[in-house]
Amino acid sequence: MSNDKDILPKINLEKGGFHPINQTKDFILNILEDLGFTHIDGPEIETEKFNFDMLNIKKTHPARQMHDTFYLNNKSYVMRTHTSPVQIRAMLESDPPFAFSSGGKVYRKDDDATHLPMFHQVEGIVIDSNVTFSHLKDLIYKIIYKLFDEKINIRFRPSYFPFTEPSAEVDILSESGDWLEILGCGIVNPIVIENCQIDSKKFNGLAFGLGVERIAMLKYGVNDIRDFYKSNLDFLCQFK
Amino acid sequence: MKIPYKYFKVAIEEKPSINSLSNKFFQLGHEHQIVNNIFDFEITPNRGDCLSLDGLLRDLKVFFNIQNHNEVYTNKIDNLRIEFKNNSKSFCPKISFAKIKIKNSVNDYKGELKNYFDDLNIPTNNFFTDISNYLMFETGQPTHCYDFDKLTGKIILEEIDYDASFDSVVGKKINLSGNNHVFKMNNEIINLAGVMGGLSTSCSESTSAILLECAYFQPDSIMGKAVKYDINSEAAHKFERGVDFLSHDRVIRRFIQIVKNHTEIEEVQIISENYKEFKSIAIPLEHEKINDILGSKISEDEYLCRLNALGFVIDNDKILVPSYRNDISSQNDLAEEIARSIGYDNIPLKKIEIQSVKNDKNLFEDKIRSFLITHGFFEVINNPFTSAMEENSMIVDNPLDSNKKYLRKVMINSLIDNLTYNERRQKDSVKLFEISDVYYFEKDELKTKKYLSIIASGRVGKNYQDFSKKINAKYMKGIFKSLFPELNADFKILPRKNLDSKSQSEIIYLEIDIEVLKKTRIEFNKKIDISTEFTQYQGISDFPSSYRDLSFLIKDPSEIEALEKLIFKFHNQILKEVFIFDYFFNKEKNFIKLGFRFVFQSKEKTLTIEEIDNIMNSIIKTTSQLNSVEIPGI
């Protein structure tokens, strides 16, 4: 026993961990960065103009009702219901072509076993001179293949979003044989492009959005969305 | 919206299987589930025209030959003279009424009426109301039946902007506020237009004559009324999404025919009032634009053929949109129609090229996050709603919980909650952090700050060097100093009074503006890459954990590694965690003492002493094979 150090047992310094939702969000944003998207950020508190009007969500749209959206300080502001206003702000300040990605917290007036008043989204938008639904499909396939694997079955089906036309929802086939909705996407509505002072005759766009919690639940095998926000160390330490 | 498969099958010549039909509906964008051969649709809000059996059959015409065998009353009908005044013509640009009087009451239903209530297990009400409900299901057009004998005055449709109330047809008193469109009679409200009728003029089983109302109401004015007044109204759901402006005559004649199929009609009269002429939306016929949007190569013939099948009319160089499609007004809308009919999955992929312009805006925060994680901290995310009002806090107009109607301006309460939550779950070392924006209102301006908040309490770590050390301000300052050497961070000791936790350890807390941190030198320049492997979550236990300590006396230090190997490789479902919490080297007597802590927890139950002892005995037995290792006292 010549030296104390020789006989000391190893010390395993316990590492902490990123929150699994932020890990998933960053994982998706990294995929988009690899595909060429430029990351942008924006405020979580928005005006109705940026959260709704600019996105072709009409005054009477159900999403704007008090039972769906949190309003602040006598309706002066809203808590953003999606990350799309981040893209609107960036579009107003940029000349196409461009491809932006954004991710972060969004808020809707929901609270039950499958919905929370705060959750996370990642969205992407491409504005260029001749992008088509065929390009959108290529992009979505690339994203989903990187998120899951290239053997996965993907289904596109028509849907409705005021800010895209045509709009689609995309499902993947689970191991149990059920189709699971993964993301929404579409061709950017020319009204939105014009709202952002971009000539819709010269430029068109693709857009998509994913719910981060949904992807995290699938990837980690978490069944209850509420577990993500209990800050339980027994839970958090499993995602180191 | 539930529709039995057999209703489609009977109308479709090709008689598709239920699975084939299901695939076609998904292709068209009509999401659904199937239970007991009944489709349960979730129609997107832009497709009000598909909120009916006829509407969905109309959409299926792009794939199948549809036979609509529904009988319509074709006899000439006399004009109805009715005392009615429409003071809200912009809200209601078209309204029709029919008076229908029957000779004998009807008790037994037949045909489609009987099938509808039997197949979908819907309780019946009275003959006329039941036909009205059935026709809303079949055609998508809501109608309302007034008991003709209860109409004692002129009916007036008008907008009111004062508080009023009326008893609805389901017996619930509705208190109206703000602007509403109502039907009134003798100055009393008899119907909240497009949402729900009133009790005073409602039909009953003894009703023998009705005034049938069939109207077009502006969707925007109906929107949100049913939710506002907590009324479950299928009619409002349909009016909100838009009904067919041109359907009145057919719907009323269908109504009369169903009555006629059940009993003899004594009297029937009809009147229709149009205040606005319907004009089809016309979109220029530019089929290449559709290919430009979709990236497809569809010929003009195919384009027109597909639109035709969906009910669009080709008028020279224009596409005329059918009256029931109020969601179509642009080339992009037409592109979606073509894409639906082809099938989104049948549109080929085209390689997309994106020119990359990279930026890494969050690198600074990522460095802080990485540093803290390296030092054993866990990242948490909290929602911003709080009961604590601070000066200039933002107020949520419509909070989910009226006790939490403010947005947090500081993060301390969230982090304290996170700490005590874990302490109540037997955690004796809690190290958490959160980076989040906070929002507040100052001098009529919205302000934002991004804070880093750190909370820590309990043991420094679970290793023999840190186990007996407690987290204190000095320890935290030391860690933070190694991240920001030039910053004197103001770590606070938080009082434990009134906290829901039995722990007595000091709570150390820091909340600091990220912008302040950005102004000082950061020493840590690594960013931990997030894992691309997603570890499968194993679930957590709701049952308490227990621990046992074992102290080993090791005479030959070369055996330490062998002992560690044996213990750390020992696996058991309820053995959750093992770590060395104590190390002692006696130089004089030349031996080492190692203390191991074994933590047990089951996901299924509270463990018994015996269950834990059994595993401890196995561990002791396993380690007994090492010659120079003893367990004092055993």
CATH architecture of chain A: 2-Layer Sandwich
The CATH superfamily label of the largest domain in chain B reads: Phenylalanyl-trna Synthetase, Chain B, domain 3
Quaternary organization:
heterodimer
Which fold name is given in CATH as the topology of chain A? BirA Bifunctional Protein, domain 2
Structural class of chain A: alpha+beta
**Which radius of gyration of chain B do the C-alpha atoms yield?**
37 Å
Which regions of chain A contain 5 or more consecutive residues with pLDDT less than 50? none
List keywords for this structure.
heterodimer; A: 240 residues; alpha+beta; BirA Bifunctional Protein, domain 2; seven-stranded mixed beta sheet; three-stranded antiparallel beta sheet; 8 helices; 28% helix; B: 634 residues; Phenylalanyl-tRNA Synthetase, Chain B, domain 1; Phenylalanyl-tRNA Synthetase, Chain B, domain 3; five-stranded mixed beta sheet; 18 helices
Your description of this structure?
- The complex is a heterodimer of chains A (240) and B (634).
- In chain A, the strands form two sheets. In chain A, strands 1-5-6-10-9-8-7 form a seven-stranded mixed sheet, sandwiched between helices. A three-stranded antiparallel sheet of chain A has the order 2-4-3.
- Chain A has one domain: 2-Layer Sandwich (BirA Bifunctional Protein, domain 2).
- Chain A has helices at 4-7, 20-34, 48-51, 84-92, 133-147, 190-195, 212-220, 233-236, and strands spanning 38-39, 45-46, 71-72, 77-79, 98-107, 118-128, 154-161, 164-173, 179-188, 204-211.
- Chain A is α+β, with helices and mostly antiparallel strands and 240 residues long.
- Helix content of chain A is 28%, strand content 28%.
- Chain A is globular.
- Chain B is of the alpha+beta class and 634 residues long.
- Chain B has five domains: 2-60, 2-Layer Sandwich (Phenylalanyl-tRNA Synthetase, Chain B, domain 1), CATH 3.30.56.10; 78-274, Phenylalanyl-tRNA Synthetase, Chain B, domain 3; 282-343, 2-Layer Sandwich (Phenylalanyl-tRNA Synthetase, Chain B, domain 1); 363-518, Bira Bifunctional Protein, Domain 2 (BirA Bifunctional Protein, domain 2, 2-Layer Sandwich), CATH 3.30.930.10; 546-630, 2-Layer Sandwich (Alpha-Beta Plaits).
- In chain B, the strands form eight sheets. Chain B has a five-stranded mixed sheet, with helices on one face. A five-stranded mixed sheet of chain B has the order 5-8-11-12-13, with no helix packed on it.
- Classes of the chains: A alpha+beta (240), B alpha+beta (634).
- At the A-B interface, α1, α2, β1, β3 and β5 of A face α2, α10, α12, α13 and β19 of B.
